[in-house]
From TrEMBL:
Natural source organism: Clostridium scatologenes
GO molecular function: acyltransferase activity, transferring groups other than amino-acyl groups
Annotated InterPro entries: FA_synthesis (IPR003664), Gly_reductase_pC_asu (IPR012116)
GO biological process: fatty acid biosynthetic process
Pfam families: FA_synthesis
Active site annotation, chain numbering: 358
Protein name, entry field: Fatty acid/phospholipid synthesis protein PlsX
Amino acid sequence: MDSTKKIIAEVFNEIAEGIESGTFSKKVKIGLTTFGSEHGIEEMIKAAEMAKSKYGDFDVVLIGPKVDCDLEVVEAEDAEDGHKKMVELLEKKQLDGCVTQHFDFPIGVSTVGKLVTPALGKELILATTTGTTSTNRVEGMIKNAISGIAVAKAVGIKEPTVGILNVDGARAVERSLMELQHGGYDIKFAESLRADGGAVMRGNDILTGTPDVMICDSLTGNLMVKIFSSFTTGGNYETLGYGYGPGIGENYDKLINIVSRASGAPLICEALRYCATCAKNHVLIKASTEFKLANTAGLNNIIDKLLAKDKPSVSEKVEIPTKKVVTFAIPGIDILDLDDACKSLWREDIYSESGMGCTGPVILVNEQDGDKAIEVLKKTGYK
């Protein structure tokens, strides 16, 4: 009798949560930009139709040229216009998320991918795969762990285990995450399958999917996604996995999942599924919650200690100009120079932000300041 009451209570709680969140009877809408694929617009339409046929519990909205199909289409003139329409639809809450081939995420936001590992066919969350969480490698990987945990919980893993890929900075990341754990943040470390064990993972652990969440820098993660998604096809057509995943940051407010220009319909179909699951389970809210918990456990103090040794004794202060809308991207700046490059523009009263696109670091300025900003960066030796 008690167990029956418990089940009934759980059902009513789910109904109440569904009504409160607005997702109980409403399908989520996921956008798909169709310009930019190396395989053509037809491949993108095929992916959307596959998702509709295979799943059906979410709607797909195409953003691109007018096409003859049974899906909703928001018309766009080209890839740039498509991205503007995508952002507008997300900001107006007319889309719950979107899958696209490229996006200039701000520094502090990077994507959490998902693989299917070849040894056991297990899904592995890879944090992160594009974008840059921090220009400091170790800080970035520490925060990637929190982002990865948030996404794991959003896709249904209640207590995800975490491993740290054995790349430069892995031991410092391990020490910092253990300190965060001792401060009260609930993080569960995986054990490597190799004889010496430990939370620092080997390449073997990627193949088997030892942890639920594997932590690495985004360049390594990007390489892993490319290899795992296309190793059966020769590299020019990605078929396996879920793509590069949603952009996650401490206070980021748009659900944008990334796929490659080389991604084929089977992978894009699963990327749409991945995005829809993240939307239904409020991954951005979960990320915000995880970062709050981590901050309470001392994350900021851990990061401050980590960065203190890298700070010069006297730090130049530059006044930041009045904020403007930044949509003009200037590529070709080394990631280690991003902060100083921004300061060089601030000195000339040009508002700028640093960002990271799929092709590398960018400086973001207002459209009207684009030409002047490029001249300043050339004069100061950053471009």
